[in-house]
User: Fold these one by one.
Assistant:
Number 1:
Amino acid sequence: MKISGIRGWHWHVVLCGAVLIQLWPLLFMLSTSFKTMDEIFQSTLNPIPAVPVMNNYLYVLKNFPLVQYIFNTLFIAGIIAASKIITSILAAFAFVYYEFSHKEKLFNALLLTFFIPITVVMLPNYLLLSRLGVLNTPWGVILPQLADAMGIFLIRQAMRAIPRPLIEAGKLENAGAWVMLTRIILPLIKPSVIAMGIVFFINSWNDYFWPLLVLQDKSRYTLPLALQMFISAEGGSEWGTAMAVAVLTSLPPLLLYLSCQRFIIHTFMQSGVKG
Amino acid sequence: MSGIVFENVSKYYGEITAVKGLSLSVQEGERLILLGPSGCGKTTTLRMVAGLEKITSGILKMGGHIMNMVEPGARNIAMVFQNYALYPHMTVWENITFGLSIRKVPNGEIKARAEKALEILNLSGYEQRKPHELSGGQKQRVALGRSLVKQAPYFLLDEPLSNLDAQLRLQARTELVKIHELYRPTLMYVTHDQIEAMSVGQRIAVMNQGILQQLDTPDIIYQYPANTFVASFIGAPPMNLLQGRLCDGNLRIAGCDIKPPAEWRNLLASHSELWVGIRPEHCRLSDNSLLRGRVEFTELLGSQRCVHVRLQGDELVLCVFPA
């Protein structure tokens, strides 16, 4: 859709305002990370540091086990993203290409899980993990997040968009389910799979609440939890250092998103779901 | 023994009848064309042979074996789809050899078969191209190549030339017949183009509304259509169908009384009203004609000119060949 004319000009102003509101926290985070503590309190809202300093970053790199936290986060986010993708692909494959009783009801029930808030499943999950003895381990964070209804829905949409003759040609070649999936379907929906993988990865990377409940040992913290250590509820927070950690924490998912933006947009456009 | 036999085969989609009581047999090595208008059940019939549609009732035999419950992959069929169904992520070579690699055919054999197919289809040099880098005609040949390398006894083609332009279609038609002559698989070919049907088919099965109307050679179907549907569907321009009535021993057509030929006597004895079919090329304009009409317009179709004549209550199309 093209916006033009006087009405278009108004829209551009509104959209620019919306973008600015979205970007402001990021800009604030970035500028604060390059400010001295004095400057942070003297000119808090000025987005441009008077003299950019690297002290906060140097302090973080010297005194903070950043690599350990990156590894913890990467491990958890990587496994969650990979398992969600695998389960989404397999479930979507079954929903699209197999006929079984109550298929539609089952799929609708799956979609209903979108609407269950995390607070409802929090307690049962916590008790279950406690009994399994995996609290305070990465597996405690990972286990309840091995599958995702949104992923199944989006991959199913992508599979449904594959022209039927391509699948039928495979059937005539006597291709089994595994060959069909790996050699025909997956290459055709690769952009959607990549996009979903990135979305899952970024969500897990940024996840704060569930790791906070499960992980107690500081050495097992993920980056969002570690970031919290710099912010004191009683005041005296090291804002410059906290923002430097926040920048470093945000960089990997941001770069990942920017590099694969077109896949993500394509996937959501194809599904008819606005992201 | 690789013929195909339909015994009273029907296919229903709920209340909708796609194919009704189809009984026909395709001889081994024969080229049978399924011809009919859109929605007549020809593609459904082909898909039932491929195993891509379940048969509601009746028996389908291939090579003497009942195939109703046999999976598509176990039927040893090669099929060319209307839009070719080439895998966009694979090269020409990968598309052609995909089926063979799944069936664990030895690599040497795969290479030999694929190279021969590429040579026959004039595709040598295109092995590493992806489908989006090919023209319509080349895609069609790749789809054909994929079926050829399979060396299957059954060859099914679902309107394979419909996406090609007229000139390419003519060329592809000839190539197709040549390739069939080379391997002689049992071939079933779906089309709604009667010219294609006449030129490719050894026999034609004309279908309408899921029912087989006539099964015969192109010549017989053209000369002796079984009913008015076949008569009007086959031929371009189609056969003129004029309603006739018997009056005092004469046949009244478009307000004119014509003395019927002697060989029609038996037919006319049992029918007082009937349709008289006249091919456009069997009519000619004459000042002495009993049928009187007014020429409304003419169309030049290359070697012939179609003349549309308005008769009393009817229209007659006739073809004249300018000197």
Note: Chain A touches chain B at residues 163, 165-166, 168-169, 171-175, 179, 183-184, 187-188, 190 (CB under 8 Å).
Number 2:
Amino acid sequence: MHFAGDSIVLPEHFLEHQKGRALRRKAIDRWFGRLGLILTLGTLGVLAILLLNLAANGLFRIDWHFLTSFPSRRAAEAGVLSAWVGTALLMLVTASLAIPLGVAAGIYLEEYAPKNKWTDFVEINIANLAGVPSILYGLMALGLFVYKFRFGQSILAGGMALGCLVLPIVIVSTREALRTIPAMIREAAFALGATRWQAVWHHLLPYSTGGISTGVILAMSRAIGESSPLITIGALTFIAFLPPPAILDHAPFVSFSWLFSPFTALPIQMFNWVSRPGEEFQANAAAAGLLLMVITLGMNGAAILLRRHAQRNIKW
Amino acid sequence: MPLPQESSRRLDKAVEGIMVWVLRLGGWASVLVTFGIVITLITESEPFFSKVPFRRLITDKMWTPLFADPQYGISALLAGTLVTTGVALLVAVPLGTILAIYLSEFAPVRLRELVKPMLELLSAVPTVVYGYFALLTLTPLLQKIYPDLSQFSMLSAGLIMGIMIIPYVTSLGEDSMRSVPMLLREGAFALGDGKLGVALRVVFPGAFSGLAAAYVLAISRAVGETMIVAIAAGLQPKLTFNPLDSAATVTAFIVQVSLGDLPHGSIGYQSIFAAGAVLFLMTLGFNLAGHALRRRFHRAA
């Protein structure tokens, strides 16, 4: 029996036991810390292996000729001219659809929308839309844009499919950028008699350009790498011509017929080369893959830096 | 006579009124896209589903809707999706969870800030590049271990898909683990538990619905992934659960048919919309579950 004031003497073997347990716990923690570090580096290593692998197999193919030649049955003469022109034009359509709509939707949901069931529904809808597999956007484009709207298997249909695909990315990043702006900015603008739109246009949008452009870059980089929606709408894998030019040397000087031209794109061209037998074509695939990786990882890197920069410069 | 401010005020009000509608239309666009997807899938697959009795979808053993003697056993496609997704999850769930625990509880802050965006890059790699890697680099490597691995294999495609979805598990998981209150950790430390013990017994259960959301969204990604499986797992539908074998997934089937000539209204055309409708229902289920779990986590935290 112990009474108040008595000092409790713990038996020696109990203390030893507790000390042993503590040491063992420390050892486990150290061990797990090392495991975590190794696995983290290993996972990032996959990225490095991917890049090195593509470079080892395809870097020698990348030269001026490769960038300025059409695909060919002879692997050594083939190039990615129609592919990168196609990708560039697709991105033009994608950006002009996804950026205005996405930013508008983001502003509406963050600044205007009343809190009600309908807004809840729109939000769940956007969350779900972000998780819809990309190939389903392709099926929608095939049924709706290609056949119902009669756009054909064209740059317009492909670009719109990709635009719908990345719309949620632009919406979400716009909302996040607006949400970081404190309420006092809005209140100050309203106090001076600004309408809501004036507050948005003169204050909220300029302050959130960093965040919005980060989202736009990520969205475009996602669109550049997508191939399955384009395959579904029937992008051709072998295109040995360029779409008609957008600028003419006679009146009316601009032409939009390129919108309805058949097309190929970088990932489609790569897919075509991957599925062909023969090491020479696989080298072409590696070269196209290297181009894609440099573009998408470069854009992602730029987005990360931009986000850091935007965060650092703002002090409310 | 109205004051000059008053007329400019009226203009401001008019602009405001117009802009509300412009912005609202933008908000509706996202709903319109969903409707576009749903309506297209329903109307274009309707001829298929009204022609093929439901019983045959379940009981047929093969999926050959384009053959002269068509078979409609959708289980042949679902098996491919199930196996590749399963392999991917065997990679992504353990690895992604360990990375999340490590980054949230063990890693120094500066390392975490450096590593997190780099991990995100894994899901930014174009999937056709992953497919290339799985088919031409990983498969030959795996063939040294399993000599009877076919040129196209669900194992190879699934493993690479697992790498691709690691960031979904890690970043969502890490976010939810870090939002577990510090107090709970400190309590457990005070009782003498170690870091790993606290992570597993306090943080992990506390963040579980967030982690579950991460797993569910990763499943949805894997189910809908197309190019990796189309390139590396093969395009021939086959009812097999052997990962060393080749088989087409629901998504790969759509690619395989799309690569051929596809006249509007043909049976091939209808069958890819049918496959798409099945795919949409599966991912919709996972997405809604993930969304609900995430909401529940945010409310609890």
Note: Chain B has two domains: 4-51, 75-300.
Number 3:
Amino acid sequence: MLKVENLTVKYGVIPAVMNVSLTVGRGQIVAILGANGAGKTTTLKAIMGVLRPASGQISYQGEDITHMSPSNRVRKGIALVPEGRGIFNRLTVEENLLLGAYSRSGNDVIMKDLKEVYALFPRLEERKKQIAGTLSGGEQQMLALGRGLMSKPQLLLLDEPSLGLAPLVVRELYATISRIREQGVTILLVEQSAAVALGASDYAYVLESGSLKLSGKPEELKSLEDVKRVYLGG
Amino acid sequence: MFSWSYFLQQTMNGVILGCIYALLALGMTVVYGILRLINFAHGALITVGAFFVYFIFFRAGINLAASLLLVLGFGGLMGLLLDVIAYRKLRGGPEVALLITSLGFYTFVENFMKMVVSPQPYSFKTPAYLAVMYKTSLLTFRSIDVFIIVSSLLIMFIFNLFVKKTRMGIAMRATAENLEVAHLMGIEVNRVIALAFALGSAIAAFTGFLWGAKYGQIAYDMGFLTGVKAFVAVVVGGVGSIPGAMVGGFVLGLAEILSIAFLPTRFAEYRDGIVFGILILVLLLRPSGLMGVKEEVRV
């Protein structure tokens, strides 16, 4: 579904990601783990097209999208739920959701998808006329996810979805992420807290200072001593 | 001696000046919201719009309705070109580059007008049907006053409808709040910005006509102080807020007119000082403006 080859991204002259390659198969949940500043967010932004890679290739469904604009990638079915959720605080909940469908046409299907998102997150429907800035952190994450789904993505990129949420809310969030996958959406997510992400994913990559350090199935990674020490806090 | 009639009369004058500031502030607040740019070029559009109407209406004799449509189109086109030619390439660079560019564009237009048109003010003769006097026991007004208030309210109403209800309008508010996430939504941010410039500039050019028709005189440098005061209205109302821009415009217009109306005559020449005094006061008491929301720190 997604293939990233030898990706290098620089901020000015400073490389944030160096020679990273990864693959995400259709229907999988894949996690990118790593400490703060390891280049996880940068990788996602490059896949979305908001950052231009210095070198490397990104292909999606067999097509080279390395130089495609973000809005065209959205049209192709890629959506990024940014770190810190990126909710439009001054807009209403419903306006936020409808913006998720900005790149699509056809009012009827969009309204149908809106209903589906409301079915997935009933809280959002209760609060649809409310200004999004007044939602709680958990609700904002739901809104960010729902907004991402409104673009009808085939590949959903999630940047630190559990950041700042209470453990109970995180569990609920990951249950929702699994349900989204069951609906046929492929998910690539980035997390600092490895334990929760490993529990939900089929495959994981570990980044360190911008380079790929390890990769493997969650159970393999969990058994590795240094992963335990560095990322699982054990 | 306080007289209700005098008070009402001056309030009306304040509302009219407020309409002009509010219209200008609309375009400035949207552009500021998206680009963090104090768009001095907005002032240039006032001058250019006023002279545009002067030449096509008074000199070329095109009828008023057509002239006004043309000035809206002309202003919109200027705004669009300014964005595409001058501003677009600077995005992503330091914000001050945009500011200097807009100041440069203003300076260019002012000097161009001074050279080509005249350093002397032109008298802007209001057509007879806009100068009809109406007298009531409390209020005396001309048809141009009614025209300014009605057309301004109409423009504000349509503009609000646009940003509240249309897909593009919602995208514009979203872009103003968070440009990067707007990108992620698949919003063509450049198109939204170009539209914001075009709309704001069209309104500014139209406002140039209102100014000329109301005050009877236009000049090559008329846009500067008016533009700056419109930005004061933006700040007073709360930067980036559209309702705030309108409220700020009216507050400023009323304060400017009422203060000179009720202060002793020798204070009249301090009217600009009063406007900036209000700015300082608002910034001291409510730094985010009357209707503003606290600015989130962008990292």
Note: The longest helix of chain A spans residues 167-182.
Number 4:
Amino acid sequence: MSENRNIILSVRNLEVKFKVRDRVLTAIRNISMDFEEGKVVAIVGESGSGKSVFTKTFTGMLEINGEVSQGEIWFEGQDLAKITNPAEWEKIRGKKIATVFQDPMTSLNPVKTIGDQISEVIIKHQGKSKGEAKQMAIDLMAKVGIHNPELRFDEYPFMYSGGMRQRIVIAIALACRPKILICDEPTTALDVTIQAQIIRLIKDLAQEYGFTTIYITHDLGVVANVADTVAVMYAGQIIEYGSVDEIFYDSRHPYTWGLMSSLPQLGEKGEELFAIRGTPPSLFEEIKGDAFAPRNNYAMKIDYEEEPPFFKVSDTHYAKTWLLDPRAPHVEPPAAVQELHARMLALTAKGGTYGERE
Amino acid sequence: MSVNETMNEKEELLSVEHLEVTFNNSRKHRFRAVKDANFKIYKGETFALVGESGSGKTTIARAIIRLNDTSAGDIIFKGKKINGKLSAEDKKWVQRNIQMIFQDPAASLNERATIDYCVSEGLYNFNLFKDEADREAKVDRALNEVGLLPEHKSRYPHEFSGGQRQRVGIARAMIMEPEFIIADEPISALDVSIRAQVLNLMNKFKEERGLTYMFIAHDLSVVRYFADRIAVIHNGRIVEVAPSDVLFKYPLHPYTHSLLQAVPMPDPQIEKAKELVIYDESKRDLSGPKPLLQEIRPGHFVFMNDRERAEYEKVLEHLEQQ
């Protein structure tokens, strides 16, 4: 969508289908998107919107009943959508594009020491000797904020807390110096205070190692913290795309408005919280028109008939809604969206801190 | 009306006094999950208990509904002690009047039972219906109130979305016509767009029936909107209790402060300028006499000793001037 910048990964007309028993579910419905090198892109959406499936196609990690049925994924001159050979995927997955998953309890092997799990990756992908790998692993552990890494090298995952385990998962992901780090809800299973530390860690490491970060989350607070660019997903499509400021202070899609105004942070006491009515559509059936139309308070007749194209708001900001068509009536976003910054400032003391100390 | 006046007018519904819950993992190893907890919940309010995982918030809730034994202290509900040994009749009274809404509606509903049974289970257990027609009418009404349809009765929990299942969880609590509901992270497992629906529903019941909630959460941002008063719990110890706007404006205990600071705000300008405050108890000055939960301003309690009190007074003065 943006041109002339350093595009590290480019997705064209991607479609992903799953066979579920005898039925076909279209999880990704024609997504095109460019990822800029060195930037943090946040993909926001509810569960089932396809955000994890979308990024899993970059590493060939779709479940066995799923396939890329259409489209291209260009990375370093290669179309990843064409790869069928598992050996070929191993040159990409983990090595050039690594993933940090949500639950650090299940992504580590419980019967292997932490040290072994990190060194294993270094030995496999970088061909180092065991001794060298151990030293590199210890350095990495220190990098991700593990104290006394030499002592903790021989410990097992159960001896680590949730936050520490997630640090180890990040260390493993970084062991091969990937070009792209996909963080799939990396902090959802963690406590808020730990979450803040992990977010900071990923940011610092991105600066140091210069990797591109793709952040998947449903937490708009986290997005505000980490993202340069934000893509909002709904029912297998990206429906709005823009810089973090554009999405938070000048969003155009009614679904983005709905997400923002239903945030409890923006709720006024004693007033009803804005709620998007209904539930997302079933992706087993073909969707006619705008997938969000049945839940959209601003839906027009055309929303039920024809799928909207992307309308350009600025060079970096696009939204897929008929409301941006010149023929559409002018609609003001809801008050909570317009006043977002003012409301958040009113909530906090100076500069967004609570109960600021001297 | 000042905080103090409203508090005095209100009727105490639940009072927890010097509560302690201890788990005996083995004869030698005892773990005190809740240490000297004191708080009161007034009729008609939403009281939030906020803390991280392992802080003891769910343990307190389970102690109130008698799922965990207490090792010291009293839990008084409507003037009656409800922890420790109780007669069968009193136990039933507690079970009926205090209902719980759980975090994960997928796990808390019997997957082999129809929605009809899930919702009427309490009615069966307490014989709360005259005849079959009466029971059906009650179930229909409960489902209708949470926005579900009578035809949903014959379906099974797995046929519903997360938000709908949580509505069933609420219907099944509401049908008992309780006075007090403990909601243990009722929206944590739900999607952002569904959360607002469930919160609105819970607020509707509160207004219509004068219900009292104890709302357990780890997310302070939800609590600010939903709760009247908030208690912050850390390592089994309640460190601060205050009306929710007061807690957000004048957080005094360093743990409360770091917890508030850690909640990500949906605003890039604020979020990107924010400083990370890490709470490390070992780095705190813990000198002086043993701290206690004491009132520093009417309705605002902090776990502190006299030395800390002097410090907090200074912080408060500074904040109140702004």
Note: Chain B has a mean pLDDT of 89.
